[in-house]
Design brief:
single chain, about 190 residues, alpha+beta, five-stranded mixed sheet, about 50% helix, about 25% strand, globular
């Protein structure tokens, strides 16, 4: 049964993690998102996508959740497990993740010919979502801006923008090596 399976899974998790997980599951069960999913007419989970904005350039992503609400509105949800403490911090995190989710949204809107799409970040530690609606005009502007940014990256026409994310970025070594090589060539050229 469900309860036996749940107990079996939870018993294999260390106690501190199990308590956190149980709390997050409880918060999810009470959330507006859980309610919306219970009434959704279509639900798709873990969707991979690939977008080819120009030749030899590929953007890939994984969509956590896409659903069609009972009122006919498509909703894109990205689950976040950050340990945040309140709504104000969730709103602040939205700024950090908005680019990622808007990228997914723009690709989906184009693929499904949608005039708009509700984008939400669901913060599991709060049991709350931060949402915005991506309109067709905004998605088109965003897509144009993203194309230009990707072109600058592939042509290596962008400045190194070191920040705290550099410490954990998977591309830290090649990025810094590329920057150091360019800097030494530029220095040698100016001498």
């Amino acid at each position: 049964t469900y309860d036996q399976e749940r107990s079996k899974i939870l018993s294999s998790i260390p106690e501190a993690s199990r308590k956190r997980l149980e709390k997050e599951l409880y918060l999810f069960a009470l959330s507006p998102l859980a309610s919306a999913l219970a009434n959704a007419s279509k639900i798709k989970r873990e969707l991979s996508f690939e977008w080819l904005p120009r030749e030899l350039l590929r953007v890939r992503g994984q969509i956590d959740l896409l659903y069609l609400s009972d009122v006919g509105e498509w909703n894109l949800v990205d689950y976040k497990t950050n340990r945040i403490t309140g709504r104000e911090e969730a709103d602040e995190r939205k700024k950090h993740y908005q680019l990622q989710l808007s990228t997914y949204g723009a690709v989906l809107m184009r693929a499904l010919s949608l005039p708009s799409l509700r984008c939400s970040l669901y913060f599991s530690t709060l049991g709350e979502s931060v949402s915005w609606v991506l309109e067709e005009k905004t998605a088109a502007r965003f897509e144009t801006s993203l194309r230009k940014t990707l072109e600058r990256i592939t042509e290596e026409k962008f400045p190194l923008n070191r920040g705290e994310i550099c410490e954990t970025c998977a591309f830290q070594k090649p990025c810094l090596e590329n920057f150091m090589v360019k800097s030494s060539h530029e220095t040698a050229a100016s001498v």
